[in-house]
Amino acid sequence: MERREQPDLLQVEFAGSLVKGKQYTTQAGEVMRGTLRPITGAEEQSVSGVRLAGDGGLLFEPAAAQPEGSTVELRFALDQPTVSPAVLITSSGVTLGVHHLNLMLWARGEWHGWPGGEDVFGVDTHHTLSVRIIRSDEGSVQMEARLDGRDMGYLEFGPVSDQALFSFGSDFEGASGLVGEVHGVRVAVASSEWRWQPTTPVIDVETELTATEAADLAGLHPANYQNVSPSDSPAAIIHKASLLRPTPEQAVWQQEGLTAFIHFGINAFYDQEWGHGTEDPGRFLPSDIDPDAWVRVLRDAGFRTTVITLKHHDGFCLWPSRYTDHSVKASSWASGGGDIARLFVEAAHRYGMKVGFYLSPADSNAELQGTFGNGSQRSPRTIPTLTADDDRAGQELQTFEYHATDYGALFLNTLYEILTEYGTVHEVWFDGAKATQALPNTTTTPRSTT
Fold it and tell me: Where's the Glycoside hydrolase family 29 N-terminal domain (predicted)?
């Protein structure tokens, strides 16, 4: 009979949100059957994982105990050789750690060197440690370990306690902590296969530049990107990678952690994912709508930014745009004065949530009206282009000059509306889809939306 792989209890690479004093919130694709939380509050989430400074770690309490043992995997990096032993993994009464650059085992009340575990770690090197722990009915333990694709052998000892908790980077109280970064943690049943181990040992790559390479690369400076050519050696590529720096805007965005997406619009009233531009705005009749609850729940779950879809590819606008009748203003909801964008932004401000708007450059309704995908050529346009009964007439508006198609001008005018009438907008999403007509279409978007 074919063995069926059992589901993981935990598989997290920290794409979600780790809030001090609260449990970790997973992102799509991650698994957490139980609770994972910081132990002391000194832990700091980074772009690539969780930073530990020796006084904290991560504690996982599974929803169901694993009396037969478990498979545990840890991805991490050390900042420096440890002066005193630091805990890597504690599981099923067994603790593995690192001392200097050696793999260690806690047994019988003291630390012991793992056989063959001398100088197996590197500083600023990504490591993957995998452990399979199988418990007998009498409480003794058989342990198998693998590090970076290298088989570290078996050990048998015991009996030990049947503690059902798991810690990573420190003991259960946050002591004997690791100085470095945890990139991923995984817990599964004892019969589970290794998931993160390479099939072959990691081979060291020569990182020293030749004299010629050093001279050729001497003129490079830290920047947002570096050019890599097929002739570059691994050492040259590593050197170029070390010079990569995010822009200030990218750095801020990376530190945001979790960003939520809210998809809501006319399609909710047609029970369909994607509209066609033919939907009747009169059917947009939300009852008991509560953007305040949307934002509050997301805030409490650890989200810092929320993006709402103000217009999807069907073209229906959730704000009363001056440039189309295919919007909330054509609905009897709120007597034609409804504005989802306004309600959402007000709720976001109440809860300290950063605001993001999604505005699709595609527009099926505009295509039906003969604007999107009509093959028009670019021509000079002033944005905003005031309408015949524009309520902004007479105001001193900041204007922009673009060469745009018919639809490009329409799109830029709607973008101008949502970026100038709802306060600070931290993020804008542009998605898109092709017109169904054969004629080409181009959409002009500004180089900066801030």
Answer: 282-436
**Going from the N-terminus, what domains does the chain have, and what CATH number goes with each?**
10-189 (2.60.120.200), 215-245 (no CATH), 253-429 (3.20.20.80)
Closest CA to 439 of 379, 376, 380: 376
Residue position matching structure tokens 């090197």: 125
Q: Amino acid identity, residue 321?
A: S
Whole-angstrom CA distances from 129 to 15, 74, 124, 184, 278 are 20, 5, 15, 11, 56
The DSSP bridge partners found for residue 306 are 260, 355
Element (H, E) at 331: none
pLDDT digits 0-9 by tens, 304-344 = 999 999 999 999 999 999 999 999 999 999 999 999 999 99
End-to-end CA distance of the chain: give it in Å, rounded: 60
* Euclidean distance between CA atoms 311 and 299, whole angstroms: 23
Beta bridge pairs of residue 357: 308, 428
CB 80 within 8 A of CB 100: no
Distance CA 162, CA 66 (A): 9
Whose tokens are 């946050």? That residue is 174
Pick from 17, 24, 159, 179: which is nearest to 88 by CA? Answer: 179
Q: Which helix (H) or strand (E) holds 76?
A: strand 69-78
Tens of pLDDT, residue by residue over 255-295, are 778 899 999 999 999 999 889 999 999 999 998 899 999 99
Residue 34: left (phi > 0), alpha (psi -120 to 50), or beta? Answer: left
Answer yes or no: are the C-beta atoms of 396 and 347 closer than 8 Å.
no
Positive or negative, the CA dihedral 158, 164, 170, 176 is: negative
